[in-house]
Amino acid sequence: MKKLSPVALVLLFVVLGCGLPGQLKDLISGGKPSGTGSSSSSGGGTATGGSDPKADVVAASKKFLELPYFTANMEGMGEIPIKSQVAYASPDRFHVKYLGGTGSGMEMIWIGKDMYMNANGKWSKMPTAQTSIPNLRDSFTEEGLKTLSDVKFEGEDTVDGKPALAYSYKNVTPAGNYPFTSKIWVGEDTGVPMKIYVEYDNGTLKNMTVNYDTETKVTIDPPVK
Fold it and tell me: Which structural domains are found in the chain, ordered by start?
C-alpha cells in the first residue's frame, strides 16, 4: 500500500487537478456536482468560440464539473511512467486501473470514504484511516484561476473525428507550485473537455496526455470479493 498510494494520488491529482483549473476541486474532494446531465445535455459549445480564450477554458472547467460521470485514459512520461484509466461517477466514486508502468495490473475503487484494492486478482477493503481521497478543496478555490496565464486560442481541430476547439495556457499546480504548460481540446458542440496535454517544467512527471470519454455511462459499485 505504501508504494501504491503515491501513484494513486498522482493519478487523481493530474487527471482531476492539474489538467483543468479552478472548480474541478469538488470532483477530487467528493463534493456534489451542480448538475446531472451528460455532456450532450450540458448546453452548447464554448461561450465565445475563441474570442475570449480564458473565458472559454473557465467555462469548460465548469461544464466538466457538472458531468455525472466520465472516464479518463492517461499516459504520462517521466521517471515514473503512467498508463492508467480513471473512471468517475457522481458524487464520490472513483475506479482507478493501472494499465502499465508502476503498479501495472492493480485496481483501486473509492466509494465515499471506503477504498478497495485489487492485488493479484484479490479485492481487499483498506483500513478507513488510509482510504480517503485527499481533500484538495482549499487548493482549488477561485484563487487557482489567478495563476492561469497566457491563454490562447489555437484554432479548430478534431479529437477522434469529432470537432474541437484547441486552447493553450500556463499555470502552476495547486500543491507545490510547479509550473506547467497545457493544451486542451474542448468539444465544439458540447463545450466539454475532450483531451488535455500537459508538460511540467520540473518534477518526476514530464508530460501527461489525458483523453476523456464523457458520453459512456459509468457505474462504480463495491467489488465482489
Answer: 4-213 (2.50.20.20)
